[in-house]
Amino acid sequence: MKKILIFLGLFMVVCGCGNSNDKNLVKDLKKKIDGSSAYYMTGTLEIYRNEEKYVYNVDSSYQKGDLFKVNLVNQNNNHEQIILKNKDGVYVITPSLNKSFKFQSDWPYNNSQIYLLQPIVNDLINDKDIVIQKNNGGYILTSKVNFSSEKDFAKQKIYLDKDKNITKIEVLDSNDNVKMNLNIIDIDYKAKFDDDYFNSNKYQSEIPKVSKNNSNIENDDNNKNQTNETNNSQNTQDAITSKIEDIVYPMYVPVDTQLSGQDIVETTNGERVILTFSGESAFTVVQETLNNDKTVNYVYGDPYLILDTVGSITDYSVSWISNGIEYSVISDTMDVDELLTVAQSISVKAVGK
Q1: C-beta atoms surrounding 33 within 10 Å
Q2: pLDDT in tens, 229-274
Q3: CA distance 248 to 350
Q4: Per the confidence metrics, is the pTM higher than 0.90?
Q5: Which of 13, 50, 176, 181 falls between 20 and 30 A from 306, CA-CA?
Q6: Continuous H helices in 17-127
Q7: DSSP assignment letter at 209
Q8: Where are the beta strands (DSSP E) in 120-256?
């Protein structure tokens, strides 16, 4: 009798995890997304790194023709960045700095993306071992993920309500710790956008340029009316400076590797600091002031959320802009995971010059 009860209990658990009918959820979800000529999704994204939590307001847009736009605003400092794909390429734009980086990249299809619906569904379709659980009248769909630069990111959970609408997405590591969490506020599958909505130039030309001394707005006829608004939306994260006041060192350095050189070089834009680390896992950290021109910088790599900003990542480098300084960690001996670990350890306060 006890064996029968145990068997029945196991049977109920297995049935609760999904059946052939439930698996039509993935097909229905794909059909819904593929059938949309344009969608607009809003939500709140939480990212957990090194015991720190970064929170973003996220607006994600898609239009048929392979057009994508993801707007990320850091809740802590109101710092705004845009990841955009149009027929000309992939861009990361920082409007307040008038900076635009153009990537040679297959984004968003080359990796999992928590804030775009197509990559999420692709992960579900590509996983033959997807787990489906019933949850408060809705469902939880669990599948593997493909974050090539975060090998410890093991799976995602997609939460559906009783009407089969996506309400939340979680990305977890191999120990079931939540590393990213997107709470979806709304998805409009019948969105309509202006003709220039996916034009990369639109998001630079609208923003006034900040001078190198960070004290004036250039060529602004409405300076008096916009001063308070600009000061509220721009902080040290958005300031362009011509001098590196403090050198920031990585708090993580691989075993048998040590700082062997430190150079400060004058550049046309201000200063460049080069930190050289020699040993078993040699690498270089570069910190450089930005120029004040509206330019498009060409980058080989992929857009990636690094610390509190969107940067770029390749097989041998990690780069990002923070507090008006461009940072790069470069190595031909370290893998991407270790490069990211070094980069993410540069989030601490500066220790002096």
Answers
A1: 18
A2: 434 444 444 556 678 888 999 999 999 999 999 999 998 878 999 9
A3: 5
A4: no
A5: 176
A6: 24-34, 117-126
A7: P
A8: 131-135, 138-144, 153-160, 166-173, 178-188
